[in-house]
């Protein structure tokens, strides 16, 4: 029945002059509707609102909503709000009876006397009531409204008052109301319905009615009614209160109904099959064995579809056509069948439950068909081409899930299955332009590669497509580039077995793409990408790849390094730790680095590059002796005046290292003069550093001079002291590699204001030093890779005192890239707020529930980084005069010798360089000046010799001390025998903890 009032309103709105005029008209109408509903709702009101006007006003509200206007009042929580009043009017229309329809002079169509017209009007009222509920229902509806809705639904399910042949439609509308009002509201409805005092329990009545609709033989109903009924149950399965449905829904009788309906359904009944599969997919969570019993039936349906696709493919080949109508006709049905099967079976070799050979053949045929169809769709100009491409992609992903569903549960794919999946995904990627499909394909590739130990022929499949990866690296979407970089890094993993090796040209292509991404990626990610590049170089260094790409890496590094401090520590590893220092024939990378740094310093560079230059030049001075040493030092001296404090300190260190190496006497004089001038500096750190170096020069002891001492009586080895100068590494047995890399990280800790202290497969530790005039605060970030981030705990275990000195917090918690339930990362930030005493040394404790372990980390190094030397610096005149005075009392032979061979047995030529540097720094902390520091195989079996001298003050008289440390002994000569033993024991404790 037409409504002239509604037509007139729509016409008036459409004739608006502008948006402001339209908004005013709609606001005016909303106020009018609100007044009508509000007055009608009053108990004392004599105004009677006819069902005709209810229909008209509800339709106006729906039209306003469809026009994009908000019909909620300003106060959304107002119990008399317009939406709530509209819902109440809809419920009145739902509960309308035939007896309510009498003569009404207010109707535009006149008096209705014929009973057929009355029946039609009743039908219209109920239809608009359902439609209005679906449109107006929102989260602000109260439980009281749910009571009215449920009662209306019950009437529609079981009432005999409704019109003949209309029961099916009313039941369908009732079910759709339950589905459409939202999962949270449905959950509340079910909880509330359990407490309803009605004749028959709602759940029992509801479920029996729904399955009555599904069972097509018992009740001839339209297909769309059965479809919505099954979708309704599938929606109910998503609720948290599914236990209330098990007894009523999860029965063998109902499952038999579903199976019989599926078997009798024709392939053209796509809606029925899709709805049944959706229902089964939710059902399998509660009754796996029951759904498993339908596996044969599901495979049969899938095989029938596959045969149709093969026949279509045959006809296309025969007639040279590109008929792709099957995509829209069968695509969603294939996806639904795959989704159910992926929960109960797999086609992978040797994983999951037993699989049927016919299923694997069918899946492989459909995968092949999808790939071929994708290529043809790119040349198709049909209007629905984009939709077809997305459907084909979804079919492919659903098919591949039958291969990799066990991988999500920490399973492993067979090498032949890996090759099959990789080939399908890579081929599909070649014929795809949609960014979402690219991302999905790349994610599945990463999932497969991360969860397998053998690529088979997959590595070859990936690396031959360099043109495709280059195209992806230039994609506008940065996430596509990130995933592409991850695929390439995994493809070059040396630890994964494969049927073929990587060719040198393929390796160059991969590195070129990664270096391009290094310039393109976000600043926070550059350190990680650079680390991956360095890992690849180290894994394949025997191919000569380092020499080929090192200059490019350094060039890129200069471009990006100024905005990413972590990269400086990584490039330092490339130059220093990735270079073999014992073999002069393998110093090509070192020579390239030296030449590049010299050229960059002469042109101009950033502050961090100067720091890097100092570190590399010092290493070159000690071990390599490459290039023009005089020119290298001159460049750094030129940069000294305009550098920051920390850079000046590094330049001073480098000048001291070069003093006995440079040949130019004028340059030596400049170094001496610089030290002497800086001894008058206002900055205490520069003043002390200059004093130390100038003192050693004045002693005139050559850095290469060896001091030979006689053998003395050997004492028993000392036990390592608990109060150590160096840290105890991670005590967790699951991280054995930390102790080997900790010293290298500590060296970077002393040299850079921020960087990577330690990096392994499971834990990554970075640091940042915040310096000011009074104190240097340090923030450590511990990034741990754990299976599940839930239940993770961290705390500070301390010997004494409060946490005034430091704090700890979880800075970031996020899931992994591929699987949101596994491979998560936790970043814990530990801050040292002020220097703490040694008896309050903190120990960080991480609790990882998924691994069932606790990780403890001691932080002695952090305290020593903040340590400030006590006492005033000694002038050069005082030092020289005191040394001359006490030198005559120095014994020619040693006073004490301590055997420490058992505590330093792990020393090898590989790590001796780092140990010597650590000993040197530790002895300086004890106020010793390092006279000589040598290490390497040229020293002999002992590995290293460090000679130190010191002038101590004991009871107002000077004491001279000379110490020679080797890998097996500590020898001390001292003018005061009383302090020799204590000094020797302290030094022994230092050596014991270094190893």
UniProtKB/TrEMBL annotation:
Its main location: membrane. Gene3D superfamilies: 2.60.40.1230, Leucine-rich Repeat Variant. Keywords: Membrane, Protein transport, Transport. GO terms for biological process: protein transport. The keyword Protein transport applies. InterPro entries: Adaptor_Complx_Large_Subunit, ARM-like, ARM-type_fold, Clathrin_app_Ig-like_sf. The keyword Membrane applies. GO terms for cellular component: cytoplasm; endomembrane system. It is found in: Endomembrane system. This is AP-2 complex subunit alpha. The lineage of its organism: Eukaryota, Fungi, Dikarya, Ascomycota, Saccharomycotina.
């Amino acid at each position: 029945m037409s409504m002239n009032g509604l037509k007139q309103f729509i016409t008036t709105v459409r004739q608006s002059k502008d948006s402001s005029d339209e908004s005013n008209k709609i606001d005016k109408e909303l106020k009018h509707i609100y007044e009508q509903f509000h007055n009608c709702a009053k108990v004392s009101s004599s105004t009677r609102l006819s069902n005709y006007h209810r229909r008209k006003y509800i339709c106006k509200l729906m039209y306003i909503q469809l026009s994009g206007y908000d019909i909620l009042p300003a106060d959304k929580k107002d119990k008399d709000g317009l939406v709530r009043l509209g819902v109440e009017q809809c419920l009145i229309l739902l509960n309308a009876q035939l007896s309510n329809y009498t003569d009404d002079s207010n109707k535009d169509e006149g008096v209705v006397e014929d009973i057929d017209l009355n029946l039609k009007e009743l039908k219209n009222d109920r239809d608009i009531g359902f439609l209005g509920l679906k449109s107006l229902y929102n989260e602000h509806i109260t439980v009281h409204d749910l009571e009215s809705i449920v009662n209306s639904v019950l009437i529609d399910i079981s009432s005999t008052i409704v019109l003949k042949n209309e029961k099916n439609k009313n039941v369908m509308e009732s079910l759709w109301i339950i589905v459409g009002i939202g999962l949270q509201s449905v959950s509340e409805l079910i909880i509330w319905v359990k407490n309803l005092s009605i004749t028959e329990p709602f759940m029992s009545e509801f479920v029996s009615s729904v399955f009555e609709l599904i069972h097509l033989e018992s009740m001839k109903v339209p297909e769309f009614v059965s479809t919505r009924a099954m979708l309704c149950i599938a929606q109910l399965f998503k609720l948290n209160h599914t236990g209330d449905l098990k007894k009523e829904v999860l029965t063998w009788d109902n499952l038999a109904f579903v199976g019989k309906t599926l078997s009798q359904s024709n392939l053209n009944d796509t809606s029925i099959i899709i709805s049944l599969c959706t229902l089964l997919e939710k059902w399998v969570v509660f009754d796996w064995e029951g759904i498993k019993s339908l596996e044969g039936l599901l495979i049969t349906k899938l095989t029938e579809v596959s045969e149709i696709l093969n026949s279509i493919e045959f006809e296309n080949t025969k007639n040279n056509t590109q008929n792709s109508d099957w995509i829209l006709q069968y695509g969603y049905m294939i996806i639904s069948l795959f989704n159910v099967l992926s929960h109960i079976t797999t086609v992978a070799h040797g994983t999951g439950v037993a699989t049927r050979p016919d299923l694997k053949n069918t899946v492989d045929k459909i995968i092949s068909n999808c790939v071929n169809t994708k290529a043809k769709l790119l040349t198709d100009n049909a209007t629905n081409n984009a939709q077809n491409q997305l459907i084909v992609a979804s079919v492919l992903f659903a098919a591949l899930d039958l291969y990799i569903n066990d991988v999500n549960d920490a399973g492993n794919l067979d090498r032949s299955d890996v090759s099959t999946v990789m080939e399908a995904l890579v081929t599909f990627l070649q014929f795809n332009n949609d960014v979402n499909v690219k991302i999905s394909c790349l994610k599945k590739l990463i999932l497969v590669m991360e969860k397998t130990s053998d690529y088979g022929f997959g590595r070859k499949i990936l690396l031959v497509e360099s043109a495709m990866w280059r195209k992806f690296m230039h994609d506008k979407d940065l996430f596509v580039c990130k995933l592409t970089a991850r695929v390439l890094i995994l493809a070059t993993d040396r630890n994964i077995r494969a049927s073929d090796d990587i060719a040198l040209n393929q390796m160059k292509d991969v590195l070129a793409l990664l270096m391009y991404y290094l310039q393109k990626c976000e600043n926070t990610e550059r350190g990680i990408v650079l680390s991956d590049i360095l890992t690849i170089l180290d894994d394949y260094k025997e191919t000569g790849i380092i020499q080929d790409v090192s200059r490019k890496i350094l060039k890129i590094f200069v471009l990006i390094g100024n905005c990413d401090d972590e990269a400086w520590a990584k490039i330092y590893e490339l130059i220093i730790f990735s270079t073999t220092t014992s073999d002069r024939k393998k110093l090509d990378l070192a020579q390239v680095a030296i030449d590049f740094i010299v050229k960059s310093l002469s042109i101009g560079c950033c502050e961090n590059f100067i720091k890097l230059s100092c570190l590399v030049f010092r290493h070159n001075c000690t071990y390599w002796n490459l290039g023009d040493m005089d020119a290298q030092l001159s460049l750094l001296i030129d940069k000294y005046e305009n550098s920051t404090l920390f850079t000046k300190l590094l330049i001073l260190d480098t000048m001291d290292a070069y003093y006995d190496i440079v040949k130019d006497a004028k340059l030596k004089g400049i170094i001496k003069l610089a030290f002497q001038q800086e001894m008058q500096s206002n900055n205490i750190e520069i003043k002390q550093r200059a004093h130390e170096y100038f003192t050693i020069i004045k002693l005139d002891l050559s850095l290469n001079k060896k001091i030979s001492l006689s053998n003395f009586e050997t004492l028993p080895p000392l036990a390592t002291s608990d109060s150590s100068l160096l840290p105890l590494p991670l005590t967790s047995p699951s991280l054995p590699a930390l102790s080997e890399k900790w010293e290298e990280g500590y060296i970077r800790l002393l040299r850079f204001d921020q960087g990577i202290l330690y990096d392994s497969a499971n834990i990554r530790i970075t640091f940042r030093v915040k310096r000011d005039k009074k104190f240097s605060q340090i923030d450590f970030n511990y990034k741990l890779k754990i299976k599940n981030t839930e239940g993770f705990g961290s705390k500070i275990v301390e010997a004494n005192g409060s946490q005034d000195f430091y704090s700890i917090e979880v800075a970031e918690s996020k899931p992994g890239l591929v699987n949101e339930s596994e491979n998560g990362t936790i970043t814990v930030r530990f801050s040292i707020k002020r220097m703490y005493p040694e008896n309050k040394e903190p120990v960080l404790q991480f609790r990882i529930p998924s691994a069932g372990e606790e990780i403890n980390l001691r932080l002695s190094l952090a305290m020593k980084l903040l340590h400030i030397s006590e006492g005033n610096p000694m002038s050069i005149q005082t030092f020289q005069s005191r040394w001359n005075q006490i030198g005559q009392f120095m014994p020619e032979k040693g006073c004490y010798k301590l055997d420490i061979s058992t505590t330093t047995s792990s020393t090898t030529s590989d790590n001796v360089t780092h140990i010597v540097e650590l000993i040197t720094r530790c002895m300086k902390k004890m106020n010793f000046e390092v006279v000589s520091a040598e290490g390497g195989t040229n020293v002999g079996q002992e590995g290293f010799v460090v000679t130190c001298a010191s002038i101590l003050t004991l009871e107002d008289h000077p004491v001279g001390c000379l110490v020679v440390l080797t890998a097996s002994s500590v020898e001390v000569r001292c003018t005061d025998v009383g302090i020799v033993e204590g000094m020797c024991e302290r030094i022994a404790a230092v050596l014991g903890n270094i190893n």
